[in-house]
Amino acid sequence: MINPSDSLIVTTASRWLARLIQIFALYVIFHGHYSPGGGFQGGALLAASVVLMRLAHGRLRSGSMLSRKWTLLLPSLGACIFLVVGLLAFVGGGDFLNYETIPAGALEGPALRSMGILVVEIGIALVVMCSLVLIFDRLSLGEWDD
Q: CB under 8 Å to 31, separation ≥6 — which residues?
């Protein structure tokens, strides 16, 4: 079987394309808190960039981009972000994920709602990205090991 990491064209193109995908993913995440898009779509794009690097460079050599330890740790962090933002709304006297009641000091109204949604979208993106990469890593176990 031909190893894709032996091709200079594949490795160079995948590095450039992965960076472009990641920039677009960040745009989708940060723009998604006030328009269509957001955490799930941005997380899927980030996962696609990592999977592209795994396919082009092998899982072991692309492990520096997102190691197995981080694919297990970051989804927990993303879920905790979601939970903490939801519970902060309770502290402020509102319902779960009612962003306007989050006690945030100087922020209030639309700015507070926008910031709350953005933080939740980042948490969702972490969960989706790492979950999809972990699924890929488990399905391709034993393949593309350098």
A: 37
